């Protein structure tokens, strides 16, 4: 073997035996473990943020100077962290008696408390602002870090921001903090806070500045707006307007804001930035309920009909016991009002009663806060065929007024609040009807939270149709009950008036329900309930039917789904009900 080759082989063998130098050094390095002795009041925050207390391995420096520097950095880190929690006189030591396990010993000392708070205002708010001195006193009373509270840096920052947000939210959009100071006395463990806020001028709304419209009409956004030029700036009003636009099918995204420039305060433009959504949408859906059986539905929507911003909504719904074809046109709103018109063809076969109807109508909907009203006019042709009874047809022109108040915490999944509804409607004999009739209806649902997440639900409804008889009155203006969301333990619309072997609508209705829902998990719960009610053609025929049972609840994106097993007391029969647990 040549000499050069022998030397190379020896070098390789030596390298394999001895290993690289950095590997030898790593093997000789000492791994350090750091423990903590501290009160529970500060232990969690120290374990979360101090680097030496992390679970990752720590390599102990070989040089004494490097170890001392590591200790100094850790002490500064702990002291700074305790200061943010209000401890400004801590004792911080390291027990290094064990070279491989150090112990960080922390005595935080007395926690600093707020001794005084001084809040001052400048600008128009201090001179002649809304509410005068009473409003300033209210702002000071709402301060989030009052005298006697422990000082924490995060609470100090949050209190300042909360006060500024309150002032910013109405009128004073350009308000700012011009000075803030926290004077800490470590010896007495007291803090004196001072904040000075300049409100700037009052802002008043100007015209809408709409950007992003391409295919929709230029006045569409304006027609949705209830913001009045000259009105004081109110952030909640702008957010409500933004939410309303976002909830329409016209827009994919919406931003509503103003320029916080004091020079524009007298009439600040309201900037509305939108992106248009795809105008046309087609969909198909399937479902099932114990009321009307299996369901398949085809829908089509055009949110820019005739390029006027009209919403066209149509669909074909085929259920086992009911089928419908509908088409509606919704016009852009004018202030709080919105008009619509449409047509509906429907056929049903429930409890031995076949109903075929064709309807055209127009509706005006008005929304004021949580109150919605509707005024509807309908022209309807209806044919009914009760099994074992006499078939009949009717033509009616009716008017119906509905008032609904939805004072609940969540429309899809309410747990607190109430729903109240009134309806009054009917038709006169001079306008196609066989006789004069007037229908009155009311419904109330109350949600009472219990023990945090549980809910106790009380529901009741009552109705009466004032007429000499039920002859010639459309079934929509009479009453049948039973089934899910009604009197459970009985088939859907099985409680009413017997005509042959069929159940038809009567002139009187009353139902009541009490239900307790226990939520074991955020998505899963169980319920116990008792329902009672009936529908009849006379008060003498009214016979209260009772059902009770248990059920399961699941919070789905469409609202709580319910599966209920109910016992019909009078019929002595067990029935399963399935459907959405709440419907508005």
CATH H level, superfamily name of the largest domain:
membrane protein fhac: a member of the omp85/tpsb transporter family
User: What helical percentage do the residues reach?
Assistant: 10-25%
Radius of gyration: 36 Å
Low-confidence stretches: 1-28
The CATH architecture of the largest domain would be Beta Barrel
Portion of residues in beta strands equals over 45%
* Major beta sheet, strand line-up: 11-12-13-14-15-16-17-18-19-20-21-24-25-26-27-28
Describe this structure in words.
Residues 1-28 have low confidence and may be disordered. It is built from nine helices and 28 strands. A 16-stranded antiparallel β-sheet has the order 11-12-13-14-15-16-17-18-19-20-21-24-25-26-27-28, with no helix packed on it. With 584 residues, it is an alpha+beta fold.
């Amino acid at each position: 073997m040549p000499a050069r080759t022998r030397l190379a082989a020896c070098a390789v063998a030596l390298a394999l035996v001895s290993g690289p130098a950095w590997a030898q050094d790593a093997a000789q390095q000492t791994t350090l473990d750091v423990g903590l002795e501290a009160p529970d009041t500060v232990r969690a925050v120290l374990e979360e943020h101090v680097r030496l207390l992390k679970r990752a391995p720590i390599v102990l420096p070989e040089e004494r100077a490097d170890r001392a520097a590591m200790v100094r950095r850790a002490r500064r880190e702990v002291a700074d962290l305790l200061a943010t929690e209000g401890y400004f006189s801590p004792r911080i030591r390291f027990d290094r008696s064990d070279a491989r396990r150090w112990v960080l010993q922390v005595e935080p000392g007395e926690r600093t408390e707020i001794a005084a708070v001084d809040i001052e205002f400048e600008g128009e708010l201090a001179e002649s602002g809304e509410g005068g001195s009473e409003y300033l006193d209210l702002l000071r009373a709402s301060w989030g870090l009052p005298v006697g509270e422990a000082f924490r840096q995060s609470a100090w920052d949050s209190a300042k921001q909360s006060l500024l947000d309150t002032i910013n939210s109405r009128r004073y959009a350009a308000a700012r903090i011009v000075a803030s100071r926290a004077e800490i006395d470590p010896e007495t463990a007291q803090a004196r806070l001072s904040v000075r806020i300049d409100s700037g001028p009052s802002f008043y709304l100007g015209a809408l500045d709409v950007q992003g419209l391409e295919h929709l009409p230029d006045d569409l956004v304006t027609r949705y707006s209830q913001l009045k030029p000259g009105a004081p700036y109110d952030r909640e009003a702008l957010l409500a307007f933004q939410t309303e636009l976002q909830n329409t099918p016209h827009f994919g995204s919406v931003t509503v804001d103003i320029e916080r420039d004091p020079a524009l305060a007298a009439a600040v433009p309201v900037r509305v930035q939108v992106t248009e959504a795809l105008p046309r949408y087609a969909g198909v859906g399937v479902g099932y309920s114990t009321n009307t059986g299996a369901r398949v539905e085809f829908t089509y929507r055009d949110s820019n009909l005739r390029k006027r911003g009209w919403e066209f909504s149509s669909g074909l719904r085929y259920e086992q016991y009911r089928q419908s074809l509908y088409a509606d046109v919704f016009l852009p709103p004018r202030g709080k009002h919105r008009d619509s018109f449409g047509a509906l063809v429907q056929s049903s076969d429930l409890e031995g009663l076949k109903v075929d109807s064709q309807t055209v109508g127009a509706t005006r909907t008005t929304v004021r806060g949580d109150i919605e009203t509707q005024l509807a006019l309908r022209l309807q042709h209806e044919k009914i065929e009760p099994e074992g009874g006499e078939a009949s047809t009717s033509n009616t022109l009716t008017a119906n007024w509905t008032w609904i108040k939805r004072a609940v915490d969540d429309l899809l999944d309410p747990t607190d609040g109430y729903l109240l509804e009134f309806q009054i409607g009917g038709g006169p004999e001079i306008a196609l009807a066989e006789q004069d009739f007037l229908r009155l209806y009311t419904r109330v649902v109350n949600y009472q939270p219990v023990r945090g997440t549980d809910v106790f639900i009380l529901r009741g409804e009552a109705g009466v149709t004032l007429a000499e008889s039920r002859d010639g009155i459309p079934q929509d203006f009479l009453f049948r009950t039973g089934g899910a969301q009604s009197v459970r333990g009985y088939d859907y619309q099985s409680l009413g008036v017997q005509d042959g072997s069929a159940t038809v609508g009567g002139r009187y209705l009353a139902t009541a329900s009490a239900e307790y829902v226990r939520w074991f998990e955020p998505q899963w719960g169980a319920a116990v309930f008792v329902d009672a009610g009936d529908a009849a053609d006379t008060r003498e025929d009214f016979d209260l039917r009772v059902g009770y049972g248990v059920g399961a609840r699941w919070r789905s994106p469409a609202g709580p789904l319910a599966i209920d097993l109910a016992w019909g007391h009078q019929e002595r029969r067990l029935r399963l009900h399935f459907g959405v647990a709440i419907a508005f």
